[in-house]
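Researcher: Let's try something more involved. This one mixes different molecule types, so please make sure each is placed in the same coordinate frame as the others.
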Amino acid sequence: MFGLFGRNKSKDQLKKRLQMVLVADRAGLAPGKLNELKNEILQVIAKYFPGDENMDVSLEQEGDRMVLTANLPAKQV
Amino acid sequence: MNAKAIVVTSGKGGVGKTTTTANVGAALAQLGEKVVVIDTDVGLRNLDVVMGLEGRVVYDLIDVFEGRCKLKQALIRDKRVENLHLLAASQTRDKSALSEERMRETVTKLVDEEGFDRILIDSPAGIESGFQTAASAAEGALVVVNPEVSSVRDADRIIGLLEARGITEIKCIINRLRPDMVRRGDMLEVDDVLEILGIKLIGIVPEDEKIIVSTNVGSPISLDKEKSGAGDAFRSIAKRVQGQEIPHSALESKRGLMTYLRRILGIG
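Model: All components are placed in one shared frame. Result:
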């Protein structure tokens, strides 16, 4: 953890936590709800594309608007 | 800044709104502007003691609002620097005595009739009526942020509320920065805070023991001729409020080559 090439800096953790919580604050959605939303979307996708991994749903700030982004690499048959 | 009436706010309490108001106000007056600082923290006034003017408060903002005195009578002239004035909050009333309409009227009078160049409005903590009244008469805002979790989160909320009021000239003051902690990676860097909040920087104030000393004696550190981290920072902020381009100190970015080398060598 305190290796020669930098350690796990507490400020990086704080930055990530703040970015997460502010996305939820700005969207007026409780962070727990946001996670539920993500999980539900992923469940629905999994129903149609079973076995796919590496799927990710995130809510991000893009300029002055919030964007719900889903990264869903559907399997090629 | 184009704004004459500027609210100093933060959401969270204890981050340095009042100290910032006193010091930037004093520095602006020293630069020749006719300045009034207004305390809107009704019931919990402190700008008077931070500035060392507590013994001279006779009338306050609520007396003005409710017509018990003339606006001129409530203006306390600071004797240390020409053109610096204080309009104190009432200590015996509560925030329900505030009125957005009276606040706007008062600020208009201060500009049009009393000829003030700059009005700094010290907002109470929180997002309720006290903050709303303080913001109601402002054209611009100085958002004071400490580089820690609750202050940044609250600042984000405040920025949203200021924008909802149509205030667009919003500048960030990063207060109480500890360069040693930033170097260790245990405190957010200036760039991190600005990236998260998405607003422009107007100044970085380092944590400085001298601030406590200056408030102990009721004399803004920005008026002190002696060099100090915080005093210099507040004077620079005042100049930037006037539109001067003053480079930010080296505290702004710790991503220089030396820092990188030190980090690699494990001596950072």
